[in-house]
## 1
Amino acid sequence: ELTSMAIPAPLLDVMQANKGTPGLYGSVIARTLFFDAHICEAVQERGFRQFVSLGAGYDMRSSRKLYNQPDVRQGDAFENKPALSLRKVKGMRAFEVDLELTQQDKKTLLKKHGFPMEHLAFVATDMEKTSVDELMQRLEEQGFDRSHPTVVLIEG
C-alpha cells in the first residue's frame, strides 16, 4: 500500500490525481517541486539574495511559498523543511522578466488579491527581440547587481 511507504503526503495526492491523465499532472508538480527545492537551497543555504525569472508570465514563484522538499534518499522528514517565501527573506530581490502587457495584467491581479510587491521588480522585455546585453541593462535599471550571486530560472 502506498501510504505505508515513506512518501510525503503531497506526492501521494499527485499520484492519486494522476490517474486520469497519466504523467501530465505528476510531471508538472514534480518539476515545480524540483525548481522550488533548488531555489530554497540557493537562498537558505548559500545566501543568494537575487532571483530572476525569465518569461515569468503568471507564475507566482516570486510571491507564493516555495516548497522546500526533503531529499528522501537521505531520510529527511517532510515536516522538517518549512516552505520559504522569497518576499520574507531579508534583502531579497526578485526580478520578473516578461512582456509588458503580461506584467501589467499580473500587477493588477497581485494588487487585487493583496500580494505584496515591494520585493519585486518587473522588467518589461520581449526576449525574442532583446539581446543579452539589453536584458542585463534593463535588469540593472531595476536594481539588479551583477556582483551578487543570483538564482536564474527559465522554466518554460
## 2
Amino acid sequence: LKNGLASEKLAQDILRLEIGLTEQQQEAVAHYGEKLKELDPEIADADLVGAVDDFRQAKIQLRANTIARTELAIATANGREELWREAIKQEVLDVTELRKSWLAASYDVCPICTGLANQESIPFDSYWTEGFRSYQREPAHPNCRCTVVLDVVEG
C-alpha cells in the first residue's frame, strides 16, 4: 500500500473485468474524436479511430486506477474502524473519551474535504455533515486522499 503497488495490481485486475467508462468519460472520448477531426479535417479514418481508441484506453486505465484507489481506501478505513471498535469492546479504549477528526491531504483538496476537515472533532459514533451528505469515515468520494484519526480526550 505504501508504495502504491497494491493499487496498481488491483487496477490491473479491474481492467481484466473489462470495466466501462462513466458517462462523462464516454462523452470525453466522443468529443476527443470530434476535436481531432475539427483540428485536422484530412485525418485518415484509420488514424482517427486509432487515436480515439488510444484515448479511450487511457480513460479506462484512469477509471481502473480510480476504482482501485477508492476500494483500497474503503477497505483501509473499514479495517481501522473495526480495530478501534475491537479496542472499545475489549475496554482498551473508552468510547466516552474518543473523538474523530477528519484530516485532508496537504494540497489539491476538493471543497467537500476542505469542509469536512474544517469541522471540529466529533464523538466516535457520530457523522460529519457536509452539504446534504453525511460521512462516518473516509473516503468522501472517489480518489479521496483524506483520513480519519482518533483523538483520546480524557476527562
## 3
Amino acid sequence: EKVRKSDKPDFKANVTFQLAYVYSYLGALDEAYYPKAAELFQAYAEGWPDDPLAPEALYQLAQSRRKAKQETAALAAYEKLVRDYPDHDLAPFGMFEIAGVHSVGFEGPDDRLELRHEARGRSGFARGAIAAAEWIRGRAGTFTLDEMLAETWS
C-alpha cells in the first residue's frame, strides 16, 4: 500500500520491477505465478517506457506470458520490444521469438539496402525440418543446405 501511494516515481518503478522478477522466479517453482509477473512487467513497461529497463521489462513480460501459455500476448510483447526499442540488445532475441522475422542489411554513407524475410507462422520451419530429415535419411557425414537444395531443386 505504501508503494501504491508513494509520490516517488523512481521508488515505485524500482519496486514494481523487482516484484515482477520475484514473481517470475516463483513461476519457476509454480507456474501460477507467471501471470502476476507478467502483470507487473507490463505495468512497468507501460508506466516507465522511457526508463532504460523498459525493454527488459517487455522481454520479461513476453517470457512470462509465454510461460503462462498466453502466446498471443507474448507475441505482442515481443513485437512491441522490437518496434519500440530496435537498437536495444534484447531486440534480436525478440525478433527470434517472433514467428520468423529476419533481415540482413548493408549500409553505406548515403543509403541502406535491406533484405527481409517474414514468416507468417512456424509451419514453414516445420516443413523444412521434415524435408531435411527425409533428405538426410540413409546418408552419413556433414551436409549443407546448399547441397540439399541443389539436389532437391534440380
